Structure formats: C-alpha cells, structure tokens
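Hi support team,

I've been running sequence recovery on a batch of backbones for a student project. Most finish fine, but this one hangs at about 90% for roughly twenty minutes before it completes. I'm not sure whether the input is malformed or the queue is just slow. I've pasted the structure tokens below so you can try to reproduce it. Let me know if you need the job ID as well.

Thanks,
M.K.
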C-alpha cells in the first residue's frame, strides 16, 4: 500500500491549466509538482522561523524611533 495521503484541493482554473501543461511538458504528475511546491514552501518557512529564533535575542526598537533616526541622518 502507498504511504501517500489523498487530499482534495480546489485550484483556480488558470493554475490547474498551468499545472497540466507543466505536467505534460516535464513528464511528471501534478501530484509530484504540487508536493515539490508545498515541500519548498514549508522548507522556506522553516528557514524563516530559524532566522527569527536566531535573532530573538537582538535588541529591538520602536519603528517610530527608527524612522526619526533615518530622517535625522538624512536618509529619508
């Protein structure tokens, strides 16, 4: 038995057409293309979360203060 799970998703018709065309062009299934895209998005999210965790100990400052400092230094 396969270790994959079945899911129903609803795609914009233009996206579905693009997926079908890419599938035919690359000789890959739509499922493989979607799995790779989801895996890539989740990997990017994991990287973002790791970066946030790495910077958690950094000093923060209010946005208003940052903008005022940029103005004072002639950057804005």
């Amino acid at each position: 038995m396969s270790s994959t799970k079945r899911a129903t998703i609803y795609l914009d018709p233009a996206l579905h057409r693009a997926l079908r065309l890419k599938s035919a062009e690359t000789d890959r299934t739509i499922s493989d293309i979607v799995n790779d895209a989801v895996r890539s998005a989740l990997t990017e999210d994991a990287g973002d979360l790791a970066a946030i965790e790495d910077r958690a100990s950094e000093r923060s400052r209010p946005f208003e203060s940052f903008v005022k400092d940029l103005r004072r230094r002639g950057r804005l």
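--
Follow-up from support: It reproduced on our side and the slowdown came from queue contention, not your input. The chain has three helices and no strands. No action needed from you.
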